[in-house]
Design brief:
Helices cover 42% and strands 14% of the residues. With 364 residues, the protein is α/β, with parallel strands linked by helices. The structure holds zinc ion.
Length: 364
């Protein structure tokens, strides 16, 4: 499990720096919060704080020294007060990369802290990137929750950069016993298609939030998590019942990329193949890839191919039409939630919609 700890995240560094004011040296308190240090230091230029409260020539008289000390003490006191209010007064948020993990984290956190989700509805987690504002927001987070295992390629460097600034992060995928792709042995990041692994994810997120977000109502978070775990158990039981309508020989999945490996393992499906090779949506199939897959699909007697609703299903259509296969292309919400009011506004709704679509697609 890849977990890094924030260092000094609750105690912004306080420094004083000396700036010339009307010919005297006056100490000015400056409170700096992690993340803004470098730019701030660079802008202080020639009269940098590291020189300390001395003078260039050491010629201050006793009275000036006394004034200087008093001003310095007041400044230090103000800086200490500012330090306290930075830690407690300003709300520090939990930032989540994908919208699926965002929904799960919000269900756990409830009103106990602010949760921001970076990935827009209907976006592709393999391809979304951050705005400059979002990237800066990451560096001030109390905790970053991300999927990891190579899923969010476009934000990996942003998360690593925040980590280097001392921000606490949680790579949820690494903590839920990930499986590996058969063809290239890299870890499969799509663990959320297995609600039992999501159960483990909830426990991991719950514990990390309580540990990392100072002052959070831990009792409320535990209560929320318990309620959500119950809902996940209900979902898992319901999925087992629904899939029981499929005979073992019907439980064959072809998808537009390898997204249902965990679901297949949990509920006894066989993954026949994927239109896009590898574990991301970033690769492209060659003509021979498609021809080979068409042969496999034909031999297995598969009648439906499942494509993600957030992606173009063009390639799946190409496979279905040009390979002369009599298959239907059925959209699933496999990688992204929809807007509220769409077909999959929450993780639980997404799983129910997909289960119904798979059962219908493989029996119709
Ligand atoms: Zn994917």
């Amino acid at each position: 499990m890849k977990v890094s700890r924030a260092t000094g995240s609750h105690s912004p560094r306080v420094r004083t720096r000396v700036e010339p004011l009307g010919g005297k040296q006056v100490a000015v308190g400056s409170t700096r919060v992690r993340g803004s240090d470098r730019r701030g230091s660079a802008s202080t230029g020639a009269h940098d704080e590291d020189r300390g409260p001395g003078t260039p020539n050491g010629l201050l008289g006793p009275r000036l020294v006394a004034i200087s000390i008093r001003v310095w003490l007041v400044a230090a006191l103000l800086a200490a007060i500012a330090s306290c209010s930075t830690g407690e007064g300003r709300e520090r948020e939990i930032i989540v990369t994908t919208n699926i993990l965002g929904d799960i984290t919000r269900s756990i956190v409830g009103d106990a802290a602010r949760v921001s989700v970076l990935m827009a509805p209907n976006a592709d987690p393999h391809q979304f990137a951050l705005s400059a504002r979002q990237a800066a927001q990451l560096e001030a987070a109390a905790l970053i929750v991300h999927n990891g295992l190579g899923l969010e390629t476009g934000v990996r460097s942003n998360v690593e950069s925040a980590e280097q600034q001392g921000v606490a992060t949680l790579a949820v995928g690494s903590a839920v016993d990930p499986i590996r792709y058969r063809d290239n042995d890299s870890p499969d990041p799509h663990f959320w298609t297995d609600p039992v692994r999501v159960r483990r994810a909830v426990e991991v997120i719950r514990d990390r939030v309580i540990e990392q977000v100072s002052g959070i109502d831990a009792t409320a978070v535990r209560g929320n998590a318990d309620r959500y775990l119950t809902e996940l158990d209900t979902l898992t039981g319901w999925m087992r019942e629904r899939f029981a309508a499929l005979a073992p020989e019907q439980r064959k999945l072809v998808t537009n990329h390898h997204v249902f490996g965990y679901l297949a393992e949990r509920f006894g499906f066989e993954v026949i193949g994927a239109v896009i090779p590898g574990g991301t949506t970033l690769a492209s199939p060659s003509a021979s890839d498609l021809a080979g897959l068409a042969d496999t699909v034909r031999a297995a007697g598969v009648r439906a191919i499942f494509a993600d609703s957030s992606r173009s299903d063009r390639l799946a259509q190409v496979l279905a039409e040009h390979a002369g296969l009599r298959v239907r292309v059925i959209p699933l919400y496999s990688e992204s939630l929809t807007e509220p009011g769409g077909g999959a506004p929450t993780y639980l709704a997404m799983m129910r919609a997909n289960t119904d679509a798979i059962v219908t697609g493989l029996t119709a």
